[in-house]
Design a protein that fits this description.
The protein is α+β, with helices and mostly antiparallel strands. The protein has 13 helices and 17 strands.
């Protein structure tokens, strides 16, 4: 890299950070200059509207009859009322301009941190020879028919893969198919389907010490997202057969079942167990949630992790293969890495509307508990509990043991892929350091 390029790379995060600080300052200045003391009222009104909206949503989910109707009205009316009051006070444009500047400030701040991080390794990968006998399992019904729409069977066959296409009309044991292929000499196992199918075959690949390949043909493709794969065009994932690199990632295990994303307990797991859920997801949830959220039905859960206080009677628990990002809304649903060797644990206990409003604060509280552990035990006052394992509904005997298996899975991915954004909680102190220091930031400056 020439001197000019190095200079541009060094200056990019600095100027992005300075722009973020300028926009953040402008957002505050607009409020103070054009609203004056009314800016305090502006902020207070917005916060009050948010609290009322959350309380309304809680009533709508946890109550039936008139209380549910009132909750739905509050959840819809509160934000509209805030907007109308802003407009009547002549402050709507002030709020919108200030909000837009703040969004730009956060965006530039993230850009500055990302630019400073660019070039740092995000995970060990190494070049490998193409597989000689790859075996892929494809589910033609996954993702609304992506296997057929993107001609995945034909393209994989042309690249030398043996493809087994599942019959949507008959349930098949995909783990048994994968084991048979391994017995017959397959040197790579892969799946074009949902995360539940991915997990089953990934377990066989780890068991046999074979590389595993993900083709993004499911609906949500959470595992593929955190691997940095191309989700818009699943056929790009097949490039791993000819020009691939290999990563080592963790697996989670709940009982004797492998998961690549998460295992859920409590309200969500109970809802997906219902036979009516597949045909009417929203209606089934609205019917079952009031009793589940108020502990009138369902087992009382107890979550134990070594070295941390027990989580008692949560309505919902999520145990994930590596922790999800929770410190910033931009990172929700994402995992910063898949090789930390730890499980993420999220427990939610909301007993009333006041506690529902408390969730606005975010972070660790009596309502939302977030922690990491290598081993987790979920017990209950029942002999068995419903568990959602990568979207698949199961019933497991209690206590349920969850554990991380660090580096258990070899994953083959294309050399050229979108990659995983280095999401971090917004850190204004770090942005300030980037704005006024002459050199690039170093890893130890990363803060939360």
């Amino acid at each position: 890299m020439d001197t000019a390029a190095r200079t541009r790379r060094r200056l990019a995060p600095r100027w992005a950070a300075r722009l973020a600080l300028a926009e953040g300052t402008a957002a505050a200045a607009v409020l103070l200059l054009f609203a004056g003391l009314r800016s305090v009222l502006l902020l207070g009104l917005g916060l009050a509207g948010t609290v009322v909206t959350v309380v309304g949503l809680w009533w709508a989910l946890s109550r039936r009859g008139p209380a549910r109707a009132l909750g739905a009205v509050l959840a819809c009316a509160a934000p509209l009322t805030v907007v109308v009051l802003y407009a009547l006070a002549g402050l709507l444009w002030v709020a919108l301009v200030s909000l837009a500047l703040w969004v730009l400030a956060v965006s530039c701040g993230r850009g500055a941190m990302a630019a400073a991080d660019r070039g740092q390794a995000v995970g060990a990968e190494h070049t490998v020879a193409p597989p000689r006998r790859p075996f892929l399992i494809m589910n033609p019904s996954s993702g609304g028919g992506k296997v057929g729409r993107f001609h995945l069977v034909e393209k994989a066959t042309a690249l030398g893969a043996q493809v087994a296409v599942l019959d949507p009309a008959h349930r098949q044991d995909v783990a048994a198919l994968a084991r048979q292929a391994a017995d017959e000499g397959a040197d790579l196992l892969g799946v074009a389907g949902g995360d539940g199918t991915q997990a089953l075959v990934a377990g066989v690949a780890a068991e046999r010490g074979l590389p595993f390949m993900v083709v993004c043909a499911g609906t949500r493709n959470h595992f593929a997202l955190d691997l940095g794969l191309e989700r818009a065009d699943p056929s790009r994932c097949l490039d791993a057969l000819t020009d691939g690199v290999e990563l080592r990632v963790d697996l989670g295990r709940v009982g004797d079942r492998v998961f690549v994303n998460n295992a859920s307990f409590g309200a969500y797991a109970a809802v997906v167990q219902s036979p009516a859920y597949r045909d009417d997801k929203a209606g089934t949830a609205l019917q079952l949630l009031p009793d589940l959220l108020t502990h009138h039905t369902g087992p009382r859960l107890l979550v134990h992790t070594p070295g941390a206080a027990d989580i008692e009677a949560p309505q919902a628990v999520l145990v994930s293969n590596n922790p999800y990002l929770t410190g910033d809304p931009a990172g929700l649903g994402r995992r910063a890495r898949l090789d930390s060797g730890a499980l993420g644990v999220l427990g939610i206990r909301v007993d009333n509307a006041a506690q529902a409003a408390e969730m606005i604060r975010g972070g660790h509280s009596r309502v939302l508990v977030s922690l990491t552990a290598r081993d987790v035990v979920v017990d209950a006052d029942a002999p068995a509990v419903a568990v959602g394992v990568d979207g698949e509904a199961l019933v497991l005997p209690t206590p349920v043991h969850c554990r991380s298996e660090p580096g258990a899975l070899r994953v083959r991915v294309p050399r050229h892929r979108p990659g995983v954004p280095r999401e971090r909680p917004m850190d204004w102190r770090r942005v300030g350091r980037l704005a006024w220091t002459r050199g690039r930031s170093t890893p130890e400056h990363h803060g939360g």
